[in-house]
Amino acid sequence: MKMPDSQSEYSPNTQAELAQFVTDNAANVQRSLQPIGGGTARRDVNADNACQVRLDGINRVIDFPARDMTITVEAGIRVADLNRILAAENQRLPIDIPQAEQATLGGVIATNWSGSRRFGCGTMRDYVIGISAIDASGQRFSAGGRVVKNVAGYDLCKLLVGSRGTLAIVSQVTLKLRPIPEETRIVAFGFNSTEQLDAALARLVTSATRPVAIDVSNEPAMQLLNIRRTIEKATMPTLLFVGFEGTQHEVDWQVEAVTSELRPFECPWSQTLSKAESEGCWGSLKEFSIRSASSTTIKAAIPPSRTCELVRLATQAGMAVQAHAGNGIVIGHLPERVSTADQAVAAIKPLGDLVRSCGGHLSVLRAPNEWPALDVVADSWAGSLAWTQRLKRQLDPHNLLNPGVMAFGPA
Fold it and tell me: Which residues make Cβ contacts (< 8 Å) with residue 383, sequence separation at least 6?
């Protein structure tokens, strides 16, 4: 029986209130709980008596010893608010997070979301050094600490990052931080074919430079990125973005070096963006995953050496594609003309076949609720991540936290 609306959502204001609510739920009604931060990566729990637990009210700054370059905050803090607090001390969390005004830190941790800077800066697992959470029985526990060199509970911190709220509800986090770089630049290269691009990417593997981002976009993606006034050749079939950060001297040298390194690879055009243009481009690349009007978005994890092959297949299917080519992460929006589940499955299946053939994974980030057939493209997770099901049974034996959600999808 469906719960009344008055009991289908709960919004605690403190960690203690949250712990008490989860304790009461486990001891009495045992509703399925769906932790929600900003809702930017929300996928509804498939349960009649599910209760949404909104965490954006738990958003205090607990401790910010700026000289130590760490901060302890509650998990419901908005990412944009966190960024403003850090920027006042010339510091940052170098993770590219779309919809920062809405997204919460806890949601980012639950999904282990990362963007273009993942290649040089890493993922959330590299920045979480302490964590507090509440398990399905309401028991509060902590791991790690408030200093970078404290590695107690290290594995538990890593375990909860990317667990999608299925093992415990993250309530408080300690992060290590980085300084805001003096200079940031993006060099854009245009290619007429993915074969040319593939050769250039292979050269970047042995580059004397140290990019923080290596992104690839096809022409449909450029239409979504909305940076045509910045990029002179935005209509080329494939664009490669190579990003650098550091001191002025470091960045200037790397921009010159990478341009020289890629010149022999039939690259007919390149453009070095100014600092202001680069910052605008970073923002557009960051928002790509949510910018499309398409009803269906996929995300794949594949060996980096096969990225161009996947981009080529996705382009043939009419998708707008962004690839974090240095890491093998590919995001694709199906064209708007895809209006049925059967059409979506037909478009995605060749990509899924390639991804599975090389040991990768593919998942559906967004799709209409009436298209459950799309889940077939993600069925490779069941075998390779069977250990997560055993872990789930141990930590949440009554299956109360996000039932039906698969933890540790492509990050």
Answer: none
